[in-house]
Amino acid sequence: MHQTILNHRSIRKYKKEPLPEHLLERIIEAGTRASTTGNMQVYSIIVTTDPEIRKALVPCHFNQPMVLEAPVIMTFCADFNRFNKWCRLRNAHPGYDNFLSFMTAAIDALLVAQNVCLAAEDSGLGICYLGTTTYMASRIIEILELPPAVVPVTAITIGFPDESPGLTDRLPLEAVVHMEKYRDYDEEDINRLYAAKEALESSKAFVKENSKENLAQVFTDIRYTLKDNRTFSNSLLNVLKKQGFMNQ
Amino acid sequence: MHQTILNHRSIRKYKKEPLPEHLLERIIEAGTRASTTGNMQVYSIIVTTDPEIRKALVPCHFNQPMVLEAPVIMTFCADFNRFNKWCRLRNAHPGYDNFLSFMTAAIDALLVAQNVCLAAEDSGLGICYLGTTTYMASRIIEILELPPAVVPVTAITIGFPDESPGLTDRLPLEAVVHMEKYRDYDEEDINRLYAAKEALESSKAFVKENSKENLAQVFTDIRYTLKDNRTFSNSLLNVLKKQGFMNQ
C-alpha cells in the first residue's frame, strides 16, 4: 500500500480496454470506506463511460484528449440532495442549504475520490485528476443533470495505463511541514526551498517555451492567471448559490 | 493496500506511546505524493505534539478528549502563502486571492490528508478526522498562528490505537453511484436505500437516547442543526475574507 502511494503518477494515456465491472465495483467500494462526517455520506460518484456524454464533457476539461480516450470518467460530487430527501420524508427539517454544509460534503467527496484513486492504482489502473471540475462546474451540472444540493468537486480519468511517466518532483518535506505552529517563510527560506525545482531541466524548458523570465511567471502569467481565477471564482460562487448552498 | 482501505475505522482512543520520528516522516512523505494542481503543492501540514498547544486546540474540536490523548494532531491547511511569497520574490504577480484558489488549495490539502491517513493505517497507526476544523477555523488560525492565505481545512488525531471498534455501516453502493448521469431518487428509492441503516440497533438506540421520532431527526435537530450550520457558515466565510480568498 505504501508503495502504491509512493509510486503515484498521473496517467494521461490509456489503453482502449474497458474497465471490468468487478474492478469498478471494487474501487468504488474502497471509496465508500473513507471517513465521512457523521456517517452521512453526503457525496455521489457519477461514472461516465458513454462516448457521447464524454464528448460533451471534453470542453469542460479544457479539451484534454484523455477525457475521451480513457474508458471511464468519474465525477465526485458534494451531494446533500439524497440526505435532504431522506430527512423530508421522515418529517425532519434539513438545515444544509449553507456554505458549511457545502464544505462538509466537498470534504466527504474528496476523501472518497482519493480512496478510489489509490484502490485503482493498487489494482494496476492509472488515474488523472481533472482540476478543471471546479472551473466548469456550471456546465458539468447541465451535462450530468445534477439536481439542486449537488455540486461537482473533482473528477478523474481512469483506465489501464498506456504510458509510464517518471515521478513528478516535489518540494522538500520541510517546505510543507510545520512543527507545533506555523513558521512563516523568509526570503532565504523561499530561495532554498524552491532551488531544486527551479534548477530542473524541465522547469528551464518550460520558462523558455513560454518566453518568461522564470518559473513563477509561467504560473502567474500563463497557467493560473488572476483574470481566469476571478472569472472561475465568480462562476463557482454562482453555482453554489444556484445549487442552494449560500443561504447563511 | 486494498485491505488497509477496507479496514478503516476511526480511532478515538490511543496509547500514550509517542509517534516515532521515522514513522512521522514516512507518512508525511506519503502525503506529498498525492496529486496536486499544477504541482503547486498549495497546502501545509501543521504537526502539533506540544500538550499546551493541544490543550488550546481542545475547545476548537468540541472538547473531544482524543485531541489531548492522541500523541499528535495534524492540521491540514489550504496554503497559498508560500507560493505567493515565491512569486513575489521572482517578480511574478500572484492572482490567488479568490475563492477558486481557496478551493484549489483545499482540494490539495484534502488529498494529502487522505494519503497521510492511509499510510498511517498501513503502518499500524489509527486516525480520526476532526470535522470541527472548518467550524472553528478562526480560532485555530489564532492558535497555530496561520498567516494570510492559509486556512485550516481538516485535522486528524493520530497515534497507536487503544481500541478496536467494528466497521461502521455504509449505505448500499447503489445509493452513492450513478451510471452515466445523475439519476434522482424517488420516495421508494430513499426508503429502500436507508432501510438497513434505520433498522440497525445502534440507530434505534440513538433515536431513543435523543427522544426523537426517527434517525433523520437526530441529525437535523441534534447533531447538525440549521442554527449551528448557519453560524459556522458565516464564520467560515469571514475567515476566507480575512485570509484574503474572497476578492473576485
Entry summary:
Chain A is built from 13 helices and 5 strands.
Would you kindly provide a written description of the structure presented here, covering whatever features stand out?
2 copies of one chain form a homodimer. Chain A has a domain at 2-166: NADH Oxidase (3-Layer(aba) Sandwich), CATH 3.40.109.10. The first copy, chain A, has a 4-stranded antiparallel beta sheet with strand order 1-2-4-3, with helices on both faces. In chain A, helix 2 (21-32) packs across helix 6 (99-122). Helix content of chain A is 50%, strand content 12%. With 248 residues, chain A is of the alpha+beta class. The interface between A and B is large, with 121 and 121 residues. Strand 1 (43-48) of chain A pairs parallel with strand 5 of chain B, so a sheet runs across the interface.
- Which strand order spans the largest sheet of chain A, edge to edge or round the barrel? 1-2-4-3
Q: What's the end-to-end separation of chain A, in Å?
A: 42 Å
Share in β-strands of chain A: 5-15%
> Sheet with the most strands of chain A?
4 strands, antiparallel
Q: Which term fits the overall shape of chain A?
A: globular
For this structure, the CATH topology of the domain at 2-166 in chain A is NADH Oxidase
Oligomer: homodimer
Q: Output the CATH class name of the domain at 2-166 in chain A.
A: Alpha Beta
The beta-strand count of chain A equals 5
Count of runs of 4 or more consecutive helical residues of chain A: 13
Query: What string gives the helices and strands of chain A in order?
Result: HHEHHEHHEHHEHEHHHH
Q: Find the biggest chain interface.
A: A-B, 121 and 121 residues
